[in-house]
Each structure stands twice: as structure tokens, then as C-alpha cells.
Fold this sequence. Notes:
This protein is an alpha/beta fold.
Amino acid sequence: MQIKLVKFGEVLISRPAGREAFLAMSAYLTKGLKKDEKITIDFKGVKVLAPSWADEVITKLAKEFKSIKLINAKNETVQQTLKTLREYSNLKI
């Protein structure tokens, strides 16, 4: 399963928006998937990624699924946010 984050916008910044995005993913994209399903998170087209939005989406996906792969994550705000999540949320991806 590949999740293209740009479908939720180019600027992903608020916790409420992240919560809404995660609920939409849970209802339409990841519903019924097995916990060992490989999930690819694609950051292509994302210009800004804030830790609060990412915590609501990426951290929760990482807790729910065993195999998470990140692609097109070269953007500086994406890199810094992922670094923050790894440090403060014990994100293992």
C-alpha cells in the first residue's frame, strides 16, 4: 500500500488536520489491511511537514503497521520533522 501525502496538501502543519488525515486513511486506505502489510509513505510534492501533523499520521501508522518505508523524503522540513519524531516519539522508521 502506498500513501501519497500530497493528496492531503502540500503544506501539512496542524495537529487537527493530521488527525483528520489519519482518520481518512484509516477509513479508506488502510482499512482491513493486515498489520504486516508493507506501507510506503510518499512525500513527493510535500513542501512543509510539521511535527504535529506528522505525529498524528506517521507515528500512528508506524505503531499500527510493522513495515513502513519512506520515499521522496529529501525535503528539509520533512527530514527535520522525521528527526524530531525519531527523537521524541521513539519513531523507528
